[in-house]
Amino acid sequence: MVLAGLDDVDWAAFDGAYGPCTEAPDILRAVASPDPETADEGRFEIGSSFWHQGTVYPVTPEVVPFLVELAATPGVHQRDHLLCTLGGLCDPDQVDGAQRDAVRAAVAVHSGPFVELLADPDPRVRAAAAYALAWAGPHGADALEARWAVEEDPAVRAALLPGLAMHDRRGAADRLRAVVMSGSAVERLCAAHTYTRLGLTVPAEAMGPLAEAFGSGVPASGPWFTARQPLEQLLRHLGPGAADALVAAVLARTPDASQVLGVLESFARDNRAAAANAARHVRTCLGAADPHVRAAAARAAYGLGEAAAGVADALAAFAERPDAGQERGTAVDTLVRLGHPAAPALLAAVLDAGAQPRLAAGALGAIVPVPFDGALLAAVRRRLADPAATRPMGIMERLQGGKNLRDLVELVASWGPAAAAAVPELRLAWNVEPTAVPAALAAVGAVDALPALRERARGGDVSCGHAVLRLTGDPADLLAAARAALDRPPRPDIGYRLRLLADAGPAAAPLLPTVRSLVAASGDDHDSRRLRVHAARLEWSLTGDAQPLVPVLRTVLRGLDHVASAAAELLAEFPPESTVDAAPLLRTMLAIRRPHQTVAAAHALRRLGAGPDELAGPLLDAAGQGSTPAVRLLVALDARDAAPALAALAAQERRVVRDGGYHDLPWEDDRFRRVVREAVAALGG
Fold it and tell me: Which sign does the torsion angle of CA 319, 321, 322, 323 carry?
């Protein structure tokens, strides 16, 4: 009887991902169901309740014997999937949580059926059994060796190989070399994975056969291949020099260079030296006869960051091709970031074709500078006037890309009065971009828009009131908008509104009682604390009196989060004698070694007299995580002893900047390194 004893377990006593795992029997019975859809739903729930996003729970070792039983029972759907799950539960790269060791022990204890499954009629089951048995522990090594001697299916032999090497390190190099020199393509791919997995040196004579395997078009499929494909794993293992030679060899052999370019792009995103080496391959592929290869090369070029300068002319030629397709926008995006002279004309053509590159880059989404160009302004105006572009979008459409006009509105604003002709089109986009358009109208000097701006300001639109202030110097409309806005329940953008109100200067004094009520408001949630900091900043700008604000900010500091960082930044502006009592909390924040918090605390502590001896270490740690403000503060501290560490950081092959938008990371990293090199020079390094 399948799943005997299932109801004898007190499942409520074992937590899963969502608390007491009382759903475990239903999940396991679903996996055992003869109905394929029900079984599929059950397997999905394994990854939800028992092993959620890599974490295992107290219930996980309890379900292991039942999963083993199901994997060993003929007729159960996708037994290979269950075996891969059991093997993955033992893989330290895939599992996290306090129950890791207990789960692996449970799999080891119940792994007996895996040996029999090595001879299952289904090769997929045999391959998955080899994977599970390898991870179950060294006791399965003899069984793996015995199966290796008789197995003829290349995919199963490939699945046996890593386990054999794991449990026979001394003989691993010879075995892998023999497979690489004479094995099938899929066996060679798995050998490449094994070299990287075990950290073994790849012999020079193996590079040619490995290139043939990667260039053969045989897919890297099987239980050992997870998130990264074996080519990318091997490139990372080899390092940029040897990796570049291997890429060249694979590209010379492969029938589909687009897949190799995708791997190369991913590698280049993580490794600066790899990006520089990749440029020549990308340049060659931009001129390929196959349009799919050209498109893949355009995508890869963006992932090179500033190293794409080496392919800029080829990229411009690609963007001018009538068959460039949707990757024309990607190519133009790269050229804009490089400041290529052809970028404005190409950007205008892309806009007129109905596409739109991403003009914002970096963690804050700042617009990449594009020089004013009359033809480009005309194209932007045509896009802003397009009814399809200016229709309101739902939040999901925005998140999925949509036809975002903010980039275009901010591009117009960046040109200032030279773009004044776009005022009618900016007004058409007003309802779609209600914050960006008033700022753009002010930037281009749109005095004709003052009546409309004032009307909206009277309705509580602080952005419009601020635009009136910029255009006229008169704060009255900003104050009227602020009064109306502050009389309403706080909105998520209240901090932005308060920052704009600060530009009214002393004229905002009549609003001080309202501002003080916001500073004194209760609530310890994230939004309430953030509101108090924004209001405290405005009160400080209006009164210059820090004393009543310090206790409020000290309370916020205890959260040690991003809101606490904003509080520390404000404390850094106060007279030092008023913030002495906050020093212990600031030092606690400094010690947690999170870049944003570190820099904010260091600024405030510097005002209190702390110097490089105390601050340089934490700031270097923050710089090592890609914090530009940390580097600049080291320069402000004249921390000359930090110069060697910064020089090493600037020269590091691995990307330093790891957080932010995935597509922009190489560009952010290149920009960060320029700041670091400037800091080294300033510090005498």
Answer: negative
Nearest C-alpha neighbor of 222 from the set 254, 263, 193:
193
3-state DSSP assignment of residue 360: strand
Structural contact between residues 167 and 199, judged by C-beta atoms closer than 8 angstroms: no
For the chain, how long is the longest CA-to-CA vector?
Answer: 89
Q: How far apart are CA 251 and CA 257, in angstroms?
A: 6
Q: In this model, does residue 396 exceed pLDDT 80?
A: no
Model confidence at 536, in pLDDT bands (50, 70, 90)?
A: very high
Q: Are 440 and 415 in contact (CB under 8 A)?
A: no
List, in order, residues 6 or more apart from 657 with CB less than 8 Å away. 626, 665, 668, 669, 672
Task: Indicate the pairing of strand 51-52 with strand 366-367.
Answer: unpaired
Query: Which stretch of DSSP H or E encloses residue 571?
Result: helix 562-571
Per-position DSSP letters for 541-569, written without gaps between them = HHH---TTTHHHHHHHHTT-SHHHHHHHH
Per the document, the length of the chain is: 685
The candidate with the shortest Cα–Cα distance to 345, out of 316, 325, 365, is 316
- As to burial, measured by CB atoms within 10 angstroms (0-12 exposed, 13-18 middle, 19+ buried), residue 487 is exposed
